[in-house]
Amino acid sequence: MAAAETSGTVAAPGRWSLHGKMALVTGGTRGIGRAVVEELAALGAAVHTCSRNEAELGERLKEWEARGFRVTISVCDLSARDQRERLIGDVADRFGGKLDILVNNVGTNIRKPTTEYSADEYSFLMATNLESAYHLCQLGHPLLKASGSGSIVFISSVAGIVALFSGTIYAMTKGAMNQLTKNLACEWAKDNIRTNCVAPGYILTSLSEGILANKEFEGSVKSRTPLRRVGEPAEISSLVAFLCMPGSTYITGQTIAVDGDAKKASPRTLQQNGVSNCPLRDAAAFCLDGHRP
C-alpha cells in the first residue's frame, strides 16, 4: 500500500487517545489496578474504580484529583453478587448508560497444597477471581454495546498458561478467564465489543515486594527470565491502554503474556544468552502479579 494511502489512517485524530472514553477498572487502588486507572485517566478517559478499602480509596482519590484525573470511586466487595449489581447500576448512572472500557482486574490468592483447600476457600477464590469478572461482563454488556465500540480487558496471569505452583484454584480461575476471553470475543463481536486478556508474570507490587526482598528468590526469578528482571505495573497498564484504544480495533480474543518471556524460554536458550542455573522445571512456588483489590 502506498504511503499516501496509509498516512491519513496513521495520523487519524484520536487513534492513540482515550479522550472522551468511559472506563470501569476494578480493584484500582494499588498495584496493577492503580497503574491502569492512572494510565487510562492520563490518556483522557473518565474512570470509575472500586475497592473494599474505603480509606485507601479516599487517599487515592485525593491524589488523582490533584493530578487532574477524572476518577470516581465506590466501595465494593466484588465477591458479593448484590454489590456487583449495585456497582454496575452506579456506573450506568454516572456514564449515562454507556461504558467504553471494562477492565476486570480484581483477584486474590490462597497458596497451599491442593488437598488442603476447604470448600469455603474454593468458593471464595472462584467468586472473587472468576465469577466476579464473568458477572460484571454480563451486567456490563448492555452498557458496552450502547457505547458502539466496547473493550473488555481481563487481568489474568501466566499461572493460567503454565504451571507455576501458585495454587491450583488460583491457576484454575486464570485459565478459565483466558478461555472466557476467547468465547466472549466470538459471541460479542456482533455487538462491536472486543475482549482481550493480559497475563502478567512477576510484577513488582506491594504484594510481591516481601517475597522479592529475598535476594535468593529474586535471583531465581530473574535467572528464569530472558530479560533478567521483574516487571513494573506500568508495563502492564500500557498494554491495557493500547488494547482499549482505537488503534487496536482489530485485536480481539487474545491472551497476551507480559512476563519477560519467562514462560517460553528453555534452559538451553537461557544458557546460550548467558543466563545459567535456571532449570524451568524448578518453577517458583509463587505467582505474584499484584492485582488484589
From TrEMBL:
Please provide the record's keywords in A-Z order. Membrane, NADP, Oxidoreductase, Transmembrane, Transmembrane helix
Gene3D superfamilies on file? NAD(P)-binding Rossmann-like Domain
Q: Which Pfam families does this entry report, sorted A to Z? A: adh_short_C2
- Lineage: superkingdom: Eukaryota
In terms of InterPro entries, this protein maps to: NAD(P)-bd_dom_sf, Sc_DH/Rdtase_CS, SDR_fam, TR
What sections of the protein cross the membrane?
152-172
GO function term, MF aspect, one: oxidoreductase activity
Matching PANTHER family: NADP-DEPENDENT MANNITOL DEHYDROGENASE, TROPINONE REDUCTASE
Protein name, as recorded: Tropinone reductase I
